[in-house]
Amino acid sequence: MLRVRDLNAWYGEARVLRDVSLDVETGTIVTLVGRNGAGKTTLLRCLMGLHRQQRGDITYDDHPIHRLAPHKRPKRGIGWVPDDRGIYTSLTVEENLTLPPRSNDDAWPLGRVYETFPVLRERRRYPGTRLSGGEQQMLAIARMLRTGARLLLCDEPTEGLAPILVRQIAEILHTVREHGVTVLLIEQNLQFATTVADRHYLLAEGRIAESLDNSEVEARQHELLEYLGI
Ligand SMILES: Nc1ncnc2c1ncn2[C@@H]1O[C@H](COP(=O)(O)OP(=O)(O)OP(=O)(O)O)[C@@H](O)[C@H]1O
């Protein structure tokens, strides 16, 4: 379980996260929704240790991690899937999958990746550039599983994707959840969020304004869409 308590973050003098507290239960998918500039990416960067100006308590599987250097967090099973997917487009799918270092004993063997995502086996000799946006996202997630990530922090995996590919992302995330992987993702598409996730945190001006389940998001969809300016 990921537990965040009273997390604050700054850029210089500007405070962009204010006393953020949230929980992500193991094996669940949770979204962070909020307007542009609400602090969603900064929050994920704090969890990964990539943002230095932060204060607060973060525990993962009962171990405090907030003082751990960024490069030590993957050893604890935390994986970051950035919004640009971070894959090497000039390398083949298989090279992308074999390059990342194994950070811990939960690292997926290549065979397990290919059994879970057969498309990646079919495309293993393709360069990253020949993959669709959905396949690139699949590769980015699979690459994190190869390092041993049990908690994936995904920065808006559906951004810029056509609806059919958005559905593929939902399937990918459900597949990883079936394997016991926990996901915290930034998502602006509320309909997608309710299809894919178990809970949602609404971030507003750096604060957690609300914690919502799927039925609450569905019941208040119009109001929330208006709030998010979508
Ligand atoms: N490098 C930076 N220097 C100064 N301020 C920054 C920097 N990066 C982000 N900010 C500011 O911090 C606040 C939170 O930004 P953040 O990117 O975390 O929001 P977000 O919710 O992820 O928004 P978006 O969806 O637009 O990425 C915003 O006001 C933003 O302008």
UniProtKB/TrEMBL annotation:
GO MF terms, alphabetically ordered: ATP binding; ATP hydrolysis activity; branched-chain amino acid transmembrane transporter activity
GO biological process, one term: L-amino acid transport
Name of this chain's protein: ABC transporter ATP-binding protein
Family of this protein: Belongs to the ABC transporter superfamily.
Keywords: Amino-acid transport, ATP-binding, Nucleotide-binding, Transport
Domain ABC transporter: 2-230
SUPFAM superfamilies xref list: P-loop containing nucleoside triphosphate hydrolases
